[in-house]
Amino acid sequence: MTQIDVVGLTKRYGTTLALDGVSLQAREGELVSLLGPSGCGKTTTLRCMAGFMDPDAGDILVDGTSVTRLPPQKRNFGVVFQNYALFPHLSVFDNVAYGLAVRRLPKAEQRARVADALAMVRLQGLEDRLPRALSGGQQQRVALARALVIRPRLLLLDEPLANLDARLREEVRWLIRDVQQQSRITAFYVTHDQAEAMALSDRIAVMKAGRVAQFATPREIYQRPAEAYVARFTGDANIIPARPRDRTADGGFHVPFGGVMLPVPGVDGIRPGDPAMLMLRPEALSLIDPGAEGVIPALVLGTAFLGAALACEVSLADGTRLRLQASPHAPVQPGMTVGLRVDTAHAWLMPDVLS
Ligand code: ATP
């Protein structure tokens, strides 16, 4: 088990500033995801950590000791890539044993450790197969076994599920979580898929243009995003310009919305009167009888049946459009006037920053 500190990583490719002071930590046994859109610097961060690339500035510490100047093989990290990177002419056994053979471990120990690693990823019985005789999911499990068998201090995974179809992706995602928790190995995981990051991570670093926009637990990132960029990247969200009137007694804000005054929690630094952004996740909104007291009248613009829910788009008197999910049995149709209720516990006020 290992504690990792990434401190102020900076990296330029020519004139492109790919990393602009990335700092992250993983505590022992923690899985930390780097989440963000294409080009935000996730892979560059991971490659610097693995030692495949030198940062221009910054440091990578393992249990307080810098490894930034060590070559990859001296770091003792396990790495799993998107494209498996298995040796095509070697059997499953030899692929997994490779790192042990390089380290010249006795044959008997190699056999025992390969058997353990293959059992962990549930691939016993396939030792003699060549990679081309395996499915994508099985190949990725071999790659995972190969990374784990060396008992790395840190596991680095770069979009390991990207080449798998949706069903396999979910299966291998659970396996990775299981294996990581069982072996209590510290891990960093690169993905642009928010559902994957939410399901797997102890903490998520949401990256934006070479920086960490927010580093927190999945729950915090989802419920208390630091800015609209994070809110948008971590699930469906209605994000509406808003100007808080004053503070509530419990430290929140009074925000005029749809003709009523909503008491909502929010980012602490916002000052009353400042332009801000109100986040309403779809589950913060529900439809009720338009005649009820204190409801916000809304016009239904469109609906889509999703099976477990009815997705609705509504518009308020001032033209604000909102998306929400109603019961699949709700008798809601385009053109109807409905009442909108806001569960302010699921609302969140953020500063108005460029995103
Ligand atoms: P993706 O999800 O598409 O892999 P990413 O978040 O991993 O993206 P990086 O691959 O780290 O992003 O790239 C960060 C920035 O650096 C991007 O602007 C990218 O175009 C640039 N970049 C990456 N590799 C190189 C390179 N070898 N030469 C020049 N620019 C590069």
TrEMBL record:
InterPro entries recorded: AAA+_ATPase, ABC_SmlMolc_Importer, ABC_transporter-like_ATP-bd, ABC_transporter-like_CS, Mo/tungstate-bd_C_term_dom, P-loop_NTPase, Transp-assoc_OB_typ2
Transmembrane spans: none
An annotated Gene Ontology molecular function: ATP hydrolysis activity
GO terms (BP aspect): quaternary ammonium group transport
Pfam family, one: TOBE_2
ABC transporter domain: residues covered: 4-234
Signal peptide positions (record): none
GO cellular component: ATP-binding cassette (ABC) transporter complex
Keywords annotated in UniProt: ATP-binding, Nucleotide-binding, Transport
PANTHER family hit by this protein: SPERMIDINE/PUTRESCINE IMPORT ATP-BINDING PROTEIN POTA, SPERMIDINE_PUTRESCINE IMPORT ATP-BINDING PROTEIN POTA
Full protein name: Putative spermidine/putrescine transport system ATP-binding protein
UniProt source species: Falsiroseomonas stagni DSM 19981
